[in-house]
Structure formats: structure tokens, C-alpha cells
Design brief:
Length: about 575
């Protein structure tokens, strides 16, 4: 049975002033509304109101995981280093991995993810194709030693995540599991009222070659997204695009360019757009081999992409550039010293002649031609695509947005199963490594993302499906024989109808109650004052629109029960299925 929560007994201490540390709306409002409290940098307490919303998010996630046959389990947060050595990630993961040694000098880490542990679990259990496919998932606290925790729940050192792992016998079966998780993630986003977009993404430290991120669209998002009306979408770490590059000159000409050491200066001096210039960057690989990279002058090198092309790539310092025989600002492809690995972005293939450095201070070459004036480089996609580049699918200009990553799905293939000896016997009796998929949703990030999308100058604007409580009853006086009894009766009637109700029974001024109600973000507010109570009426405020209507006191409970039921129906599994069908129609 639903009971009424009295504000006088609710542990939700508000803050009157904006916390100085809070840069984003979600961080500021969750702190001010008494929903989270900082314990240490990137580590937070979840107070009762936030925890109610977290549980609602988890319930939706569980419902959708179970709808595709995923089975919930619980894996340990503390993981032995030996498992990470087996997958070769102990050293590769980097300083973000929370490592420690126990009293017996054995190394452990606090798991940021659970590929190693779950692979270790199933390698002794899933031995036959007849047992496959299987998808296992959990909702658990994860740990990551962020160098700079910030933005509250959006970049923490401790966070709540749902992680799932599928085990399959064939590529076709893996694709089916991957697709099932993808459509389940769509339904989760829809059911939580999130304005979202799915984008192609880089797999990063998790591994695999196929990955999609689910982004909550928000101007405050840390990720840059590129998309097209044709349906193409990607984050800028993985986006490929057509790039306009202009040729400059038709024969090799050495041009004096005094002190023109930047692309902007060079383009202005030569009277050409920056897309007619070629930018050179110098780095080295893991073995110290000099790597020279050429990109269009108006684009930047993509750190993620180049790391896939050159293992251990890092930029050279100014001193190292000079030591290796190059002049910063005037580097070019003609007469490059022997032993240098030369790479050029694939977009430069279309430009027959380059405006590029001459490897001599204060000089550039105009009209340098691949194959004639310098050897053909290794071609690779190494630049960051940007708004206005051509869509790789239809050729139209790409549009841009910003987003917050709330989920990501991966096809891992045999990355972990081969390294850790997780094999099964197929129909022909042949042992093969399990094919794996990995699927994560940041539950605490999702909470913050919902607040980031739903807020105004007065506080949080929750969708009903995630709000800690659905209705707040605000008596403007307490302890009297008119307003207080009417408010208590209305709250009891709402609770009896199954509506999650909070009664603000505090002996506070009306302004305090109004301000707190908006700050907490209660979707519906029933305001009971003396004048209205005398006439048998109350005021109903809808938080999302700030609409206010006068309604009979004896009708408000039934009216709100209907409104809440209507809102709940918008965010059910069946409603999400309908939204998916409409998108695909």
C-alpha cells in the first residue's frame, strides 16, 4: 500500500545557495535539492530522494533486460590482478584502474567493468554450443580513478552501472544479441523520457571493432556529435566524413613565407582558404620511430583514430622536433629524412597539389604533388570530422549537437575469450573461443542526464516516470481546523489511489514551500490555502508547464490519479515498443 511521506520526516536537506563547485545544472540542483552529498572528489552519497529515482531507473533497466532474456547476477567489485594480466589489460588500462595490494601482497583492482571476471566465470561452465547464447547482467557500483572528477555524477570515481555480457557461438548469433541489446536500450531511453540519439563510437579500452553509444542530448554534454537527416550519426571520435580540400598550384614552387608558422598565418599570406593548406604534425610510436602526419589545414588530428594507426603514438616536444632535423611550422613531405613513417589523411588524396612546409625555416612549397615530388604516404582516416563536412552516407552537410553518454554497446568478438581460454565445443565437435558482446548503461549518469535535460531557473523538472514522488500536497497553514485537515485528506486519498505522495506538513512560510516544491521538481503540486479551502477548492500546479488550475477539493485526488496513470502509461514497455515502431515506419 502506498503511504504518504511527510516532509517533516523526510531527509532531504536543501541548500539556499548554489554550491561553488557545481559547474552543471544537474550537479548544482541535485546538491541543492538534498539528493546527493559529496564525500570526496568524485564520490557521493545518494540521499533518499535520489535513491528513489535511482531505483526507478534500475527497475526500467531490469524490465527491459528481462524482456530480451538477460539473467541478472552479482559479480565481485574486488578483482584479482591475475585475471587482468590474462586479458593483458592490467598495464594497458592505465592509471584510471583503481589498484591496491592486500596484506598478503596480492594485487587487486576495484572493477571499472567486469569482462575479465565474467569470462573467468563462464569459461568453466559454458562448454557446449547447446548452452548458447547466454546473456548475463548486473547493476553494481564501479570505480575509476579519474584524474579530474567533475560535473557531479557525470564524471565520478565511483558510479552505478548496469553491465551485461553475451556469449555466442556464431557471428550471426552475436549480431542478434547485439541488436537485441540495442533495441532494449532504445526502449530504456524512451521509458525514462530522455531525448536521445544513438551514434557510432570508438570502442576504447573495452575492445572490439563495433560499438554504438546512446547519448542524452544536452548543450552541457561532454561529447560532440555529428549527424545527418539520412540517419547517420557518430561521435566525433569515430565519425568519418567527406572533407573539402582545395588544390593549391599545379607545379612545385618554393615560396618564401617569413614567420608564417601557423596555418592561419599561411592561408592569409597566400590569399587562400585554410582548406587549401596542409598541416604537418610530428610524433613517435611506442618504439620511438618518428611519425610524420599530414592533415587538411582546417581540420585537427584525432587522438583516438591515430592511436589505432600508430601504436603508442605521442606528439614530439619542440626540442625533439629540432633534434630530429625538422623546423616547427615549416614541416613538409619533400626530402623527408630516411626512417620516418609518413601518414596522410585519406581526404588529401583528392588534392593533387599541396601547400605545405618546405622543411626549411620561412619557406613553404606550393603545388607539391604526391608521387612526383615526394613518395606516396600511408593513407588513413586520422582527422576529427566537424560540422559542415559531407555525410559519408548521403553526402549532405553534417549537423552537430552535444550529448552525454549514458550507454554503450560493443561487439567484443574473441578479445577476452581467446586471451583467457574461454572455449566451447561446436556442433562438429571442434573447440572454438566464445564470441562476446558487452553492454553498459550508466545508471547514476542517467539520473544526472535526466536532470540536465529537465530543469529551469527554479529547480528540477522531473518526468513522472523518474520523479522521487509524483504529487506534493502543500497546505499553506498547519495545525488549523480547515486547511490542514483538507490537505491531509487529499494526500491520504492520493496514496489510497496508488499515487506516490508527499505532504509538506512543515510549519514554514508559503514562499518556502513553493520554492522547495519547484526545487525538488514534484511533477504535480496541490496547493491548499484558506480562501480556496473555504470554497472547497484547491490549486493544481503542473511543474513541467507551470500551468495552474482551480479544482474542487473532492475531485482533485481522482483527477490526479488519472493524470498520473496517463503519464505512467506513456513510459511503459508497450508504449516504448510503439515508439520504436513509429521511428522505423
Amino acid at each position: 500500500m502506498t503511504t504518504v511521506q511527510k516532509m517533516s520526516q523526510l531527509y532531504a536537506p536543501t541548500l539556499k545557495e548554489d554550491p561553488g563547485e557545481a559547474e552543471l545544472a544537474s550537479h548544482r540542483l541535485l546538491l541543492r535539492a538534498g539528493m546527493i552529498r559529496k564525500v570526496a572528489a568524485g564520490v557521493y552519497d545518494y540521499l533518499p530522494l535520489a535513491w528513489r529515482s535511482i531505483r526507478k531507473i534500475e527497475a526500467v533497466v531490469r524490465d527491459e533486460m528481462e524482456s530480451i532474456g538477460a539473467q541478472e547476477l552479482r559479480l565481485p567489485a574486488m578483482q584479482p590482478a591475475e585475471l587482468w594480466h590474462q586479458s593483458h589489460r592490467w598495464d594497458d588500462y592505465g592509471p584510471e584502474l583503481m589498484r591496491f595490494t592486500d596484506r598478503h601482497e596480492r594485487e587487486f583492482c576495484l572493477g571499472p567493468t567486469h569482462e575479465e571476471v565474467v569470462t573467468s566465470l563462464v569459461r568453466n561452465e559454458l562448454r557446449s554450443y547447446k548452452q548458447l547464447p547466454v546473456t548475463l547482467y548486473q547493476i553494481q557500483t564501479k570505480y575509476r580513478d579519474e584524474i579530474r572528477p567533475r560535473f557531479g555524477l557525470l564524471r565520478g570515481r565511483e558510479f552505478i552501472m548496469k553491465d551485461a555480457y553475451s556469449f555466442n557461438a556464431t557471428k550471426e548469433s552475436l549480431q542478434e544479441s547485439y541488436d537485441e541489446e540495442g533495441v532494449a536500450y532504445e526502449r530504456i531511453c524512451d521509458r525514462l523520457g530522455i531525448d536521445w540519439r544513438a551514434v557510432d563510437a570508438d570502442s576504447g579500452q573495452i575492445g572490439g571493432k563495433v560499438s554504438i553509444e546512446f547519448m542524452a542530448l544536452a548543450e552541457s554534454g561532454e561529447a560532440s556529435l555529428l549527424y545527418c537527416d539520412c540517419g547517420y550519426a557518430s561521435d566525433d571520435e569515430a565519425a568519418t566524413a567527406g572533407v573539402h580540400v582545395e588544390a593549391c598550384g599545379d607545379h612545385l614552387e618554393k615560396v618564401e613565407t617569413p614567420r608564417m608558422g601557423t596555418i592561419a598565418e599561411l592561408a592569409e599570406f597566400m590569399g587562400v582558404p585554410e582548406c587549401a593548406t596542409v598541416k604537418a604534425l610530428l610524433g613517435k610510436d611506442a618504439d620511438g620511430v618518428t611519425t610524420l602526419i599530414f592533415v587538411p589545414g582546417d581540420h585537427d588530428l584525432n587522438d583516438i583514430k591515430i592511436s589505432h594507426v600508430v601504436v603508442g603514438f605521442e606528439m614530439l616536444t619542440d626540442d625533439e622536433i629540432g633534434e630530429r632535423g625538422f623546423v616547427k611550422g615549416f614541416i613538409g613531405p619533400v626530402d623527408v629524412p630516411a626512417g620516418v613513417h609518413v601518414i596522410a589523411d585519406i581526404s588529401l588524396r583528392q588534392s593533387g597539389h599541396w601547400l605545405v612546409g618546405a622543411n626549411e625555416r620561412d619557406y613553404h612549397f606550393k603545388g607539391a604533388q604526391v608521387g612526383r615530388d615526394f613518395p606516396e604516404p600511408e593513407w588513413a582516416d586520422v582527422i576529427t570530422a566537424r560540422i559542415g563536412d559531407r555525410c559519408p552516407v548521403c553526402g549532405k552537410p553534417l549537423q552537430g549537437a552535444r550529448g552525454i553518454e549514458i550507454g554503450q554497446i560493443f561487439q567484443l568478438g574473441t578479445k577476452y575469450s581467446e586471451a583467457m581460454g574461454a572455449a566451447f565445443t561446436d556442433e562438429d565437435g571442434v573447440d572454438k573461443p566464445l564470441l562476446m558482446g558487452c553492454y553498459g548503461i550508466g545508471v547514476s549518469r542517467t539520473l544526472a542526464s535526466i536532470v540536465e535535460q529537465g530543469n529551469d531557473e527554479n529547480g528540477i523538472v522531473w518526468p513522472v516516470c523518474v520523479a522521487p514522488f509524483e504529487v506534493a500536497v502543500l497546505p499553506l497553514s498547519v495545525g488549523d481546523d480547515l486547511v490542514d485537515p483538507m490537505a491531509t485528506k487529499i494526500a491520504a486519498a492520493l496514496a489510497a489511489a496508488g499515487v506516490e505522495t508527499v505532504l509538506d506538513d512543515r510549519d514554514e512560510r508559503a514562499g518556502v514551500k513553493f520554492n522547495d516544491a519547484d526545487l525538488y521538481g514534484w511533477p504535480y503540486q496541490v496547493i491548499v490555502g484558506k480562501r480556496g479551502a473555504t470554497a472547497g477548492e484547491v490549486e493544481l500546479k503542473v511543474r513541467a508547464t507551470n500551468e495552474r488550475i482551480i479544482i474542487a477539493a473532492d475531485e482533485v485526488a481522482a483527477t490526479l490519479a488519472g493524470l498520473v496513470a496517463e503519464q505512467r502509461a506513456r513510459f511503459t514497455h508497450e508504449a516504448a515498443l510503439g515508439m520504436q515502431a513509429a521511428r522505423r515506419a
